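Hi R.,

As promised on Friday, here is the backbone we talked about, encoded as structure tokens. Could you run it through your design pipeline when you get a chance and send me back a sequence?
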């Protein structure tokens, strides 16, 4: 579904991504783990057209999308749930969700998807008329994910969905990620919580200072001594 070939990104004199290759097969959950500053968010922002690559290409369904405007990429079914949630604090929950469907003109389908988001996140339904800024951190993350789903994505990219959340909320968010995937949406997940990410992922990549240093099935990476030592806090 998504293929990245020899992708490089520079920020001034900083070589943020150094020729990475990455594949996200349709129907799978793929995770990208790594420390702060490794280039994980840059990868997602480049895929969705917010950052321009200096070399390489991004392909979605065999079509080169690198260089396309972000809104065109979104209309092709690729959506990013950004780090930090980025909801609209002065809009209600329902208004935030409606903005996720801004590019759609199938009103019955939008209403159906709104109800589905409320099924996934009953708490959002309870707070549908509340301003986004009055929600807790966990509720704002639910809203950010729900807003992404309202565009009916084929591929949903998520940047640090567990960041700053209580353990119970983190567990719920990852259960929802599995459910979204089971319903047919492909997921590319960037996450510092390596254990939680690799437990749900079909395949994973380890990014270190702009380079892919390890890759493999999620379960295999969970058992890899290098991953356990560097990202799971375990001694070899």
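Update: got your reply. Pasting your designed sequence below so it's all in one thread:
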């Amino acid at each position: 579904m998504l293929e990245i070939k020899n992708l490089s990104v520079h920020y001034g004199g900083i070589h943020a991504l150094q020729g990475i290759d990455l594949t996200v097969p349709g129907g799978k959950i793929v995770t990208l783990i790594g420390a702060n500053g490794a280039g994980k968010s840059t990868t997602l922002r480049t895929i969705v057209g917010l950052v321009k690559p200096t070399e390489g290409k991004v392909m979605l369904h065999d079509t080169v999308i690198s260089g396309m405007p972000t809104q065109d990429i979104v209309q092709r079914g690729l959506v990013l749930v950004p780090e930090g949630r980025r909801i609209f604090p002065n809009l209600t929950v329902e208004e935030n969700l409606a903005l996720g469907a801004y590019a759609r003109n199938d009103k019955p389908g939008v209403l159906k998807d709104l109800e589905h988001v409320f099924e996934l996140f009953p708490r959002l339904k309870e707070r549908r008329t509340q301003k986004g800024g009055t929600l807790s951190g966990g509720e704002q993350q639910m809203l950010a994910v729900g807003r992404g789903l309202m565009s009916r994505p084929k591929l949903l990219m998520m940047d640090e969905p567990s960041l700053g959340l209580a353990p119970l909320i983190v567990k719920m968010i990852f259960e929802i990620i599995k459910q979204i995937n089971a319903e047919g949406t492909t997921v590319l997940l960037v996450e510092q919580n390596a254990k939680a990410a690799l437990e749900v992922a079909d395949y994973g990549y380890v990014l270190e200072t702009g380079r892919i240093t390890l890759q493999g099935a999620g379960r295999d990476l969970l058992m890899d001594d290098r991953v356990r030592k560097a990202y799971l806090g375990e001694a070899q």
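One thing I noticed while checking it: The mean pLDDT is 92.

Thanks again,
M.
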